[in-house]
Structure formats: structure tokens, C-alpha cells
Amino acid sequence: MLLAATIGLAATSLQADVIAPGDVVMTEYGEVTESLTGVPGDPARGQAIMVDRGQGNCLACHQVTALDHEPWHGEVGPSLDGVATRWDEAALRGLLVNADTVFPDSIMPAFYKVSGFVRPGDGFTTRPAPADLQPMLAAQDIEDVVAFLMTLTDY
Ligand code: HEC
Q: What range(s) does the Cytochrome c domain occupy (predicted)?
């Protein structure tokens, strides 16, 4: 009983620190300066999310030399090599939350957005979105991907 109560409490306080998609504060330059979770990103996990075709699926559109061991790098978007020298952490977080602020009408998915879509779909599945729209990536996923992107300093 006591254990369950303690776990419940821990889960609640964890939840409280997560900024919901509707509450994200973005600067006029499309930067999100505050961490979405307060928990430092894990670059290894971020790399896994980026190459996962059902999660980030970043390689569908981007080439990344550091991920050369993965097949199929797309050329729809720019190569992400050296991306950490072009953008800082707040800018990268903002691009993932919603790239539209920096690149109007970008075809890059807004990974942390749940409203304002014309015809929302369910991630990359082509099915219509469920009534309660979930962001394409969870808050910690975004932090982890940002942490990996920050390692991409080489061209
Ligand atoms: C459907 C294609 C698509 C997907 C999927 C996609 N992007 Fe993009 N991304 C783009 C395009 C296109 C641009 C260039 C800006 C524009 O014209 O919209 C871009 C720009 C960027 C930039 C800025 C690059 C620069 O140097 O200017 C970053 C960083 C980025 N994407 C990261 C990601 C990450 C990380 C993922 C996966 C979580 C991802 N993108 C998924 C299409 C995509």
C-alpha cells in the first residue's frame, strides 16, 4: 500500500513537470528556451527515436552522416550534419515542436503540437487522428532528440 502510494506520488510529480503541447512558450523566432520536462535529454535514446520509422522518422527526409549505418536517408530536407553549429538548443527544440514558425508551411511534421491542424492524421499511419490527439513525440522524446542533434557538430 505504502509502496503504491509512493509510486503514485512520484508519477504525479513527474507529470507536473512536463509542459503540455498547448502550454509550450515559443519566442517569435521559433525558439523554445525551457526544457519540456526538466530532465536532461539522452542522446542515445534520441538517436533511436530519430531512426525509428514509427517515431521521429527523420531519415525519411534528412541525411545524417553519423547515422550512416542506417539505410535510406532522404533528401527532402537539408542534411543535419553540423546542425548544432547552425542552431542552438532552444532553436532545435522549437524546430521539433513546430518547424512552421521558422519555416512557414514546412512539410516537416510538427512533433509536439495537438491543435490547429486542418485534417489531423494519426502520426505516420495515414489513419485519421483519434479524438484526443497525442503529439507525434512525447516531451522527453523531444528532449532526447535535441540532445542527439546537439552532438552533430561535424560537417
Ligand atoms: C517529411 C519530411 C521531414 C521529416 C520527417 C523531418 N524533417 Fe526536418 N526538415 C524538413 C525540411 C523540408 C526542412 C527544411 C526547412 C523547410 O523548408 O521546411 C527541415 C529542417 C530541419 C532542421 C533545420 C536544418 C537546418 O540546418 O536548417 C532540423 C534541425 C530538422 N529538420 C530536424 C528534424 C528531425 C530531428 C526530424 C525527426 C524528429 C525531422 N527533422 C523530420 C523535412 C522533414
A: 41-153
Q: How far is the CA of 109 from the centre of ligand 1 (A)?
A: 8
Question: Which atom of ligand 1 is closest in space to residue 149's alpha carbon?
Answer: 35
Query: Does residue 82 form part of some domain?
Result: yes
Q: What is the pLDDT of residues 72-131, one digit of tens each?
A: 999 999 999 999 999 999 999 999 999 999 999 999 999 999 988 777 788 888 888 887
Mean pLDDT of the residues in the chain: 90
Residue 112 alpha carbon to ligand 1 centre in Å = 14
Q: What's the domain count of the chain?
A: 1
CATH number reported for the structural domain that contains residue 58 in this entry = 1.10.760.10
Range of the domain at 13: 2-114+137-149
